[in-house]
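Pipeline run #58 for the internal structure catalog. This entry was flagged by the ingest filter as a single-chain record with no existing model, so it goes straight to prediction. Upstream metadata was stripped on purpose; only the residue string is passed forward. Reviewer on rotation: M.T. Logging verbosity set to normal.
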Amino acid sequence: MPRRTAPDDGRPRLATIRDVARHAGVSVATVSRILSGTYPSAPATRAKVMRAVRELDYVANAHARGLAGVRPKNVAIVVNSVISPHYAHVAQGVQEEAAREGRLCIVGTTGGDPERELDTIRLMRQEQAEAVILVGNIVADDAYRERMASYARALAAAGSRLVLCGRPPLGPDVPATVVEYDNTAGAHAITSHLLSAGHRRILFLGRRTGYTTPESRIAGYRAALAAHRVPHDPGLEVDGTMERGEGHRMMSERLGTGPRDLTDFTAVFAANDLIAAGARDALRERGLRIPDDVSMVGFDDLPPAADIDLTTVHVPHEELGRTAVRLALKNDPPDAPAQHVLLGTHIVVRDSVRHHLEP
């Protein structure tokens, strides 16, 4: 039986709980109890009600469920973008663990806009999400920390939990869970890999002051230089964002229009694999090959790293998402201490680094 049609304008009218009760031949109270699972019912009665629900395509009203004390079983993930491999793989981990826990997964996108992020979190609160998982590179200034602390306390008061995934902690007094990976250690390891291969002039592509992810990666790069007693040259750090096109731009501008000075740099550390792919394109346009002419490493171990045979740092993106859901659903009390989990990274060696002998 299709949804009923309103006689005034011909538009379909959503079925109500009264329609379900009438269709099943039971009371509204009986339908409500069966759908909420809060009261025993005869199997035959339950079967009649559920058949009516299916035939009428009935969807319970979220606000009515809230008034009845029935909490929907879902978790929410809020990301900057759904087309970035980084966000997509974290979201996949969230979805997998949510399904394993019998929860649905709601996805929201912000485009990196703090106001859209706030509006999205408000929406997830209205939907009574058990957890709201925020993923994305951000500027961790005082305004951000104040805003996040407010989100966390509001969600905790509603019986939910804020999870910062790949973002820095807010402090022990804020009811938020933090799941991140060790950017600095990964960058230190991959820079040391280049240094061990004899490279001393390592170009870093993707510096972005004030943003947590590139700042922590460049910190690892600088620390590795210091550990190997290699002088730090700020001129080898190039500003840019984390897109493939930016990798092409940064490398093209660095190479200029003339032949490359082979003493300028012998290796490239791209702040992520997309930057590496764009930089590789720019090198190839000028007849330069990896690793024969220039060695290169990346970060993330996401497409297109394997396709271009790139040595890179593996980040456990899907495990980030799975861990975020597991911790969020532990049902800790609102005043429980903040949780902070740091996942490790490791180098994936492919064929983009060549041993360099200083002339």
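catalog note: Confidence is low (pLDDT under 50) at residues 1-7.
catalog note: Residues 85-100 form the longest helix (16 residues).
status: ready for reviewer M.T.
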